[in-house]
Amino acid sequence: MFIGREQELRTLNRLYSSGKFEFAVIYGRRRVGKTALISEFVKDKDTIFFTGVETNEKQNLDNFSRCIMEYGTGIAADSSFSSFQSALEYVFQLAKDKRLVLVLDEYPYAARASKSLASTIQLLIDKNKDNSRLFLILCGSSMSYMEDHVLAYKAPLYGRRTAQLKISPFDFFEACQYFTNLPAADKALAYGIMGGTPQYLMQIDDRLSIEDNIKNTHLNPSSFIFEEPNNLLKQEVREPAIYNAVISAIASGCSKMNEISNKIDEDTSVCATYIKNLITLGIIKKESPYGEKASRKTIYSIEDNMFRFWYRFVPENISVISRGAADLAYKRIASELSDYMGKVFEEICRQYLWKLLLEEKCAVNFRDLGRWWGTNPKTKSQEEIDIIGANKDSVLFGECKWTNEKIDLSVLETLAERSNLFYCREKHFYIFAKTGFTKGCLAKAAEMGNVTLVAYKDMLI
Question: The domain 172-341: what is its CATH number?
């Protein structure tokens, strides 16, 4: 069953409907669903679908030739084109009089094996684009290769593409489509342990409890998820051990560059390079307090929830997990799940506010969202605001609480007090709660008039 990606499909179908030559570049991290998206798009269209493999030029050319022959004759043939140029020229010729989609999936594998492939494609695009009906799709999982050798200014194919789609993981509301049978609270937990990557979400069995799902995935040495962080790093980077150390340091609480550097015993300049690559992969994110430029306050955290959960709980329990004691490992984890879900719930609430904004239902027409932390000049204490967003006239302040107790008046009063650290003409407060609100909080919100109280269950409607 194919889920989501409506906007991407609309883009691809719009390009297809033009009837003229189009060249789309589709890229994104492994497991994010690029091939599934393309397969859904081409299912009712004339298509030659080639997937590059990590081998030499001859093998990739033979495979490409076979794909072309199968399209033309419906049967596999032993003959092969003499070069990628002759094969591509033949495809362009096929597309002179009819709409044809050519997919080069896992393009980096083929291009690395054939150093002239990019220049050959460039040559043939320039020669045929004005009289061809070909829709060319280049797809790749190697983020650095696609950005440096396909999209970059100095790349041979620069300026030839008519569209590019960077495929990102699903947000919480899209991810919920994968586990329709789970209770409401468990949907948030499922997103918290797997994030929005489709291949990870498919590991959730929504007929089982979250406890059983955690035991079957993160705490099961034979599961796909148990080995995934290490396997993905081995596929994406040259020195997975150091990258693993960086992620582990951040998972252990080291959030600043110097802390990470000291933890793994590497220079900050070295760490900066590794962290930059992990940010590109969507595993790590960089944050500064809302409204402030990158500074000494800049911190780093794990962005991908599956990685965040894995590095938080698996390494410290690896001895018992490897001995098959999933029940014991889960008992150690269970007491920390609510605390872990705090940051996940903040992320869900930010996504909910973006959803409201796009539906023109948000109280503040904000430009962007973030969080803020810093020193209160009056009390000299450290303060934090979970969500903050602004436009030129008003500021949104948000607080998120993933707790089984109802949120009382003190939470609203504290947020209102912290908002005084910012000058603004108009304020609006959003309080998000897992369970709900006390009568006192409800009464005060009604009295203030600029407060929106949101219970988690209402976010799913």
Answer: 1.10.10.10
Contact between residue 201 and residue 221 where contact means Cβ atoms under 8 Å apart: no
- φ and ψ at residue 394, rounded to 5 degrees: -145, 160
CATH code for the part of the protein at 355-459? 3.40.1350.10
pTM: 0.93
Q: How far apart are CA 317 and CA 292, in angstroms?
A: 38
Which residue, among 412, 417, 402, has the nearest Cα to 440 in the 3D structure? 412
Please state, in angstroms and rounded to a whole number, the distance separating the CA atoms of residues 88 and 457. 54
List, in sequence order, every residue forming a beta bridge with 50; answer none if it has no partner.
104
pLDDT in tens, the chain (461 residues): 788 899 999 999 999 999 999 999 999 999 999 999 999 999 999 999 999 999 999 999 999 999 999 887 655 566 789 999 999 999 999 999 899 999 999 999 999 999 999 999 999 999 999 999 999 999 999 888 999 999 999 999 999 999 999 999 999 999 999 999 999 999 999 999 999 999 999 999 999 999 999 999 999 999 999 999 999 999 888 889 999 999 999 999 999 999 999 999 999 999 999 999 999 999 999 999 998 876 778 999 999 999 999 999 999 999 999 999 999 999 999 999 999 999 999 999 999 999 999 999 999 999 999 999 998 888 889 999 999 999 988 999 999 999 999 999 999 999 999 999 998 889 999 999 999 999 999 999 999 999 999 999 999 97
| Structure-token pair, residue 246 | 């960086």
User: What's phi and psi for 300, nearest 5 deg?
Assistant: -125, 140
CATH class of 6-166: alpha beta
Residue 22 Rama label (left phi>0; alpha psi -120 to 50; beta):
beta
DSSP 181-245: TS-HHHHHHHHHHHTT-HHHHTT--TTS-HHHHHHHTTT-TTSHHHHHHHHHHHHH-S-HHHHHH
Q: b or e along 204-236 (b: 16 or more beta carbons within 10 Å of the residue's beta carbon)?
A: bebeeebbebbbbbbbbeeeebbebbeebbeeb
Tell me which residue of 151, 180, 142, 156 sits closest to 52, measured CA to CA.
Answer: 142
Distance between alpha carbon 451 and the CA centroid of its chain, in Å? 31
Q: Where are the domains of the chain?
A: 6-166, 172-341, 355-459
Instruction: Check residue 130 and report its DSSP letter.
Output: G
Q: 246, 237 in Cβ contact below 8 A?
A: no
Burial environment of residue 180 by CB neighbours within 10 A (0 to 12, 13 to 18, 19 or more): exposed
Q: Are 26 and 38 in contact (CB under 8 A)?
A: yes
